[in-house]
Specification:
Chain lengths: 114, 109
Amino acid sequence: SQTIHQWPATLVQPVGSPLSLECTVEGTSNPNLYWYRQAAGRGLQLLFYSVGIGQISSEVPQNLSASRPQDRQFILSSKKLLLSDSGFYLCAWSDRDKDTGELFFGEGSRLTVL
Amino acid sequence: GQNIDQPTEMTATEGAIVQINCTYQTSGFNGLFWYQQHAGEAPTFLSYNVLDGLEEKGRFSSFLSRSKGYSYLLLKELQMKDSASYLCAAMDSNYQLIWGAGTKLIIKP
Protein backbone atom coordinates (compact mmCIF):
# COMPACT_ATOMS: atom_id res chain seq x y z
CA SER A 1 0.00 0.00 0.00
CA GLN A 2 1.02 3.57 -0.56
CA THR A 3 2.05 5.88 2.26
CA ILE A 4 3.10 9.49 2.46
CA HIS A 5 5.07 11.00 5.29
CA GLN A 6 6.17 14.56 5.92
CA TRP A 7 8.22 16.13 8.66
CA PRO A 8 8.64 17.88 10.94
CA ALA A 9 5.09 17.98 12.28
CA THR A 10 5.55 21.29 14.06
CA LEU A 11 8.14 23.99 13.71
CA VAL A 12 8.70 27.34 15.41
CA GLN A 13 11.21 29.51 13.60
CA PRO A 14 12.39 33.12 13.91
CA VAL A 15 11.92 35.58 11.06
CA GLY A 16 14.84 35.41 8.65
CA SER A 17 15.77 31.82 9.44
CA PRO A 18 15.85 29.05 6.82
CA LEU A 19 13.22 26.36 6.35
CA SER A 20 13.24 22.80 5.12
CA LEU A 21 10.16 20.57 5.07
CA GLU A 22 10.55 17.10 3.67
CA CYS A 23 8.01 14.70 2.17
CA THR A 24 8.44 11.12 0.99
CA VAL A 25 6.05 8.71 -0.68
CA GLU A 26 6.31 4.94 -0.54
CA GLY A 27 4.59 2.19 -2.48
CA THR A 28 4.18 3.98 -5.79
CA SER A 29 6.40 5.20 -8.59
CA ASN A 30 6.46 8.42 -10.59
CA PRO A 31 3.74 10.15 -8.57
CA ASN A 32 2.60 13.73 -9.06
CA LEU A 33 3.69 15.64 -5.93
CA TYR A 34 2.27 18.81 -4.42
CA TRP A 35 2.94 21.33 -1.68
CA TYR A 36 -0.07 23.20 -0.33
CA ARG A 37 -0.45 25.85 2.36
CA GLN A 38 -3.60 26.18 4.41
CA ALA A 39 -4.30 29.44 6.21
CA ALA A 40 -7.12 29.72 8.75
CA GLY A 41 -10.47 30.40 7.07
CA ARG A 42 -9.08 30.03 3.58
CA GLY A 43 -8.94 27.30 1.00
CA LEU A 44 -5.89 25.21 0.30
CA GLN A 45 -3.36 27.21 -1.71
CA LEU A 46 -1.24 25.26 -4.18
CA LEU A 47 2.38 26.33 -3.84
CA PHE A 48 4.27 23.88 -6.03
CA TYR A 49 3.63 20.75 -8.01
CA SER A 50 5.93 18.30 -9.71
CA VAL A 51 5.35 15.68 -12.41
CA GLY A 52 8.88 14.26 -12.27
CA ILE A 53 12.41 14.53 -10.89
CA GLY A 54 13.70 18.07 -11.22
CA GLN A 55 10.40 19.28 -12.71
CA ILE A 56 8.82 21.91 -10.47
CA SER A 57 5.98 24.27 -11.27
CA SER A 58 5.40 27.26 -9.03
CA GLU A 59 1.90 28.58 -8.63
CA VAL A 60 2.52 31.53 -6.34
CA PRO A 61 5.56 33.86 -6.41
CA GLN A 62 7.06 34.00 -2.93
CA ASN A 63 10.21 33.39 -0.97
CA LEU A 64 9.64 29.62 -0.94
CA SER A 65 11.16 27.07 -3.28
CA ALA A 66 10.72 23.37 -3.90
CA SER A 67 12.96 20.58 -5.12
CA ARG A 68 12.46 16.97 -6.14
CA PRO A 69 15.86 15.29 -5.91
CA GLN A 70 14.39 11.78 -6.12
CA ASP A 71 11.24 10.31 -7.63
CA ARG A 72 9.41 10.04 -4.31
CA GLN A 73 10.97 12.91 -2.38
CA PHE A 74 9.69 16.47 -2.35
CA ILE A 75 11.30 19.26 -0.32
CA LEU A 76 9.95 22.72 0.51
CA SER A 77 12.56 25.32 1.42
CA SER A 78 13.11 28.94 2.23
CA LYS A 79 16.34 30.88 2.74
CA LYS A 80 14.70 33.56 4.90
CA LEU A 81 11.30 33.11 6.49
CA LEU A 82 8.73 35.88 6.73
CA LEU A 83 5.99 36.26 9.32
CA SER A 84 3.46 35.64 6.53
CA ASP A 85 4.95 32.18 5.93
CA SER A 86 3.24 30.88 9.08
CA GLY A 87 0.61 28.25 8.31
CA PHE A 88 -0.19 24.59 7.90
CA TYR A 89 1.77 23.00 5.07
CA LEU A 90 0.55 19.87 3.39
CA CYS A 91 2.38 17.56 1.03
CA ALA A 92 0.24 15.41 -1.27
CA TRP A 93 0.59 12.93 -4.08
CA SER A 94 -1.65 11.67 -6.86
CA ASP A 95 -1.44 8.75 -9.25
CA ARG A 96 -0.92 10.14 -12.74
CA ASP A 97 -2.39 6.97 -14.23
CA LYS A 98 -5.78 7.52 -12.60
CA ASP A 99 -8.25 9.93 -14.16
CA THR A 100 -9.79 11.05 -10.88
CA GLY A 101 -6.77 12.99 -9.70
CA GLU A 102 -7.54 12.06 -6.09
CA LEU A 103 -5.00 13.53 -3.70
CA PHE A 104 -3.46 11.70 -0.76
CA PHE A 105 -2.14 14.02 1.90
CA GLY A 106 0.69 13.77 4.38
CA GLU A 107 0.14 14.49 8.06
CA GLY A 108 0.85 18.20 7.70
CA SER A 109 3.51 20.51 9.14
CA ARG A 110 2.49 23.47 11.26
CA LEU A 111 4.95 26.34 10.90
CA THR A 112 4.95 29.32 13.23
CA VAL A 113 7.27 32.18 12.34
CA LEU A 114 7.97 34.58 15.23
CA GLY B 1 -11.94 34.11 -12.13
CA GLN B 2 -12.26 30.74 -10.50
CA ASN B 3 -14.21 30.48 -7.29
CA ILE B 4 -15.66 27.96 -4.84
CA ASP B 5 -18.34 28.96 -2.34
CA GLN B 6 -19.46 26.93 0.66
CA PRO B 7 -20.88 27.92 4.05
CA THR B 8 -18.34 28.72 6.74
CA GLU B 9 -20.00 26.79 9.52
CA MET B 10 -22.99 24.54 10.15
CA THR B 11 -24.44 22.94 13.25
CA ALA B 12 -26.43 19.70 13.41
CA THR B 13 -27.65 17.20 15.97
CA GLU B 14 -26.32 13.68 16.49
CA GLY B 15 -28.44 11.17 14.54
CA ALA B 16 -29.81 13.80 12.16
CA ILE B 17 -29.10 14.56 8.47
CA VAL B 18 -27.13 17.54 7.18
CA GLN B 19 -26.52 18.85 3.65
CA ILE B 20 -23.45 20.94 2.88
CA ASN B 21 -23.73 22.93 -0.34
CA CYS B 22 -20.98 24.02 -2.69
CA THR B 23 -21.12 26.20 -5.80
CA TYR B 24 -18.22 26.50 -8.19
CA GLN B 25 -17.03 28.58 -11.10
CA THR B 26 -14.02 27.21 -12.95
CA SER B 27 -12.34 27.41 -16.34
CA GLY B 28 -13.47 24.06 -17.61
CA PHE B 29 -14.50 21.22 -15.34
CA ASN B 30 -13.02 17.80 -14.68
CA GLY B 31 -14.79 16.75 -11.54
CA LEU B 32 -15.81 17.77 -8.02
CA PHE B 33 -14.20 16.44 -4.86
CA TRP B 34 -15.23 16.40 -1.23
CA TYR B 35 -12.64 15.94 1.51
CA GLN B 36 -13.02 15.64 5.27
CA GLN B 37 -10.52 17.34 7.57
CA HIS B 38 -10.45 16.93 11.33
CA ALA B 39 -8.88 19.76 13.29
CA GLY B 40 -5.10 19.74 13.03
CA GLU B 41 -5.05 16.82 10.61
CA ALA B 42 -4.67 16.35 6.88
CA PRO B 43 -7.71 16.16 4.56
CA THR B 44 -8.96 12.71 3.59
CA PHE B 45 -10.86 11.87 0.43
CA LEU B 46 -14.63 11.38 0.66
CA SER B 47 -16.05 11.50 -2.86
CA TYR B 48 -15.56 12.38 -6.51
CA ASN B 49 -18.31 13.33 -8.97
CA VAL B 50 -17.76 14.02 -12.65
CA LEU B 51 -21.24 13.18 -13.97
CA ASP B 52 -24.58 14.63 -12.88
CA GLY B 53 -26.42 12.79 -10.17
CA LEU B 54 -26.06 11.29 -6.76
CA GLU B 55 -23.22 9.04 -5.60
CA GLU B 56 -23.92 7.14 -2.39
CA LYS B 57 -21.22 5.73 -0.16
CA GLY B 58 -22.53 4.47 3.15
CA ARG B 59 -23.74 7.33 5.34
CA PHE B 60 -22.28 9.89 2.94
CA SER B 61 -23.68 10.88 -0.46
CA SER B 62 -22.53 13.50 -2.94
CA PHE B 63 -24.57 15.19 -5.66
CA LEU B 64 -23.49 17.12 -8.74
CA SER B 65 -25.27 19.37 -11.20
CA ARG B 66 -22.84 20.58 -13.83
CA SER B 67 -25.34 22.90 -15.51
CA LYS B 68 -25.86 24.73 -12.19
CA GLY B 69 -22.25 24.57 -11.02
CA TYR B 70 -23.54 23.02 -7.82
CA SER B 71 -22.76 20.12 -5.54
CA TYR B 72 -23.78 19.00 -2.10
CA LEU B 73 -22.52 16.52 0.45
CA LEU B 74 -25.21 14.72 2.43
CA LEU B 75 -24.37 13.14 5.76
CA LYS B 76 -26.91 10.82 7.36
CA GLU B 77 -27.17 9.38 10.88
CA LEU B 78 -24.69 11.93 12.14
CA GLN B 79 -22.14 10.80 14.70
CA MET B 80 -19.99 12.92 16.98
CA LYS B 81 -16.91 11.83 15.02
CA ASP B 82 -18.36 13.58 11.95
CA SER B 83 -17.45 16.91 13.56
CA ALA B 84 -14.86 18.20 11.10
CA SER B 85 -14.35 20.61 8.24
CA TYR B 86 -15.62 19.53 4.83
CA LEU B 87 -13.69 20.83 1.84
CA CYS B 88 -15.17 21.18 -1.63
CA ALA B 89 -12.75 21.29 -4.57
CA ALA B 90 -13.37 21.53 -8.32
CA MET B 91 -10.88 20.41 -10.94
CA ASP B 92 -10.43 22.84 -13.83
CA SER B 93 -9.51 22.23 -17.45
CA ASN B 94 -5.80 22.04 -16.50
CA TYR B 95 -6.58 19.32 -13.95
CA GLN B 96 -5.74 21.70 -11.11
CA LEU B 97 -7.89 21.66 -7.98
CA ILE B 98 -9.61 24.87 -6.90
CA TRP B 99 -10.44 24.63 -3.20
CA GLY B 100 -13.20 26.14 -1.11
CA ALA B 101 -12.39 27.48 2.36
CA GLY B 102 -14.21 24.55 3.95
CA THR B 103 -17.37 24.16 6.03
CA LYS B 104 -16.88 23.53 9.72
CA LEU B 105 -19.55 21.08 10.86
CA ILE B 106 -20.38 21.04 14.56
CA ILE B 107 -22.33 18.06 15.88
CA LYS B 108 -24.27 18.48 19.10
CA PRO B 109 -25.53 15.58 21.23
